[in-house]
Design goal:
376 residues, alpha/beta, 13 strands, globular
Length: 376
Amino acid sequence: MYIADLHIHSKYSRATSKELEPEPLDAWARRKGIGLVGTGDFTHPAWRAELRDKLAEAEEGLYPLKGAGPDAPRFVITGEISSIYKKGGSVRKVHNVVIMPSLESADKLSNKLAAIGNITSDGRPILGLDCEHLLEMVLEADERGVLIPAHIWTPWFSLFGSKSGFDALEDCFGSLSPHIFALETGLSSDPDMNRLWSALDRYVLVSNSDAHSGENLGREANLFEGTPSYDGIFDALRRAARGEEGSGCTYRGTVEFFPEEGKYHLDGHRACNVVLEPEESMKIGNICPVCGKPLTVGVLHRVMALADRKAPVMPKHDPGFVSLFPLPEMLGELLSVGPKSRKVQERQSELVRLFGSEMDILHTVPESDLRQHWDA
């Protein structure tokens, strides 16, 4: 079993840690227990040059740090692209994760994107590019390229977002819709929420951290079993989308953040410090009770609007999921201090030294072993 976090960012994206470089990412992946991590931001030429300088190809399509040893975490070439464009009479703002099988194919796609807009000012470029056209360009650059709609329910920048998204995937990706087989749930939703809408039955659900710092790596992630390889990973996801079992690399589901903790789970108006359940918002016409401006309709409300089921229905052979609190938050609760406090950091480092990675501590180490140490 190994853990994969495919959607992260580098130091070249806005509002991200300057320590998001290959060496610290390798160290954080080891600490978190992540065997496969996305590079993020491959469209940025300086980041791509750094990746080429510091990574070596190992298994097909996967890259460890040069000289890092056979058990080092692997990187896969990924990036997030923000498409802002007009379609169907409305302005659309959709984020997509793109995964490429090699740095060479990433070069080819990036060169195409550079002809459309500025890809050097931000690791997550903002382009006036229709999502269907983006997917077409991905497949033209390399037929093994993959596009996964990112955090699909986020209000402002997502496929189904209440502020700028679509009511059907086909309205976004048109004739190329059959090439979409996976959807990213985002921090504010989980598989149970997504399985309230039958239109999503034919897609496999994935989860990633969208980390802007090493500390947040793996807060959501994917579980695979078998020998990792680029084609193996995405063949496994395609089989899962079709409800098929298979040999070789197998998809085993997701590690989820509790959606109630997500930034956009409920409705609200941040400027007025207003947070409301969907039922409350609907009673007041989705208008802020403080200032009278429209509320931001959150993820739960948007899911309820499109759902056609009262209870989730899991597709055949659905791999399931597990919900976990981040270790620093759990330790902060136990120690009655903040999750970023020195006391938490010291205890966290001690636990990792004794029991392995953070994911091991949260997911596999017996409670009795942890309790024996904690009570000592």
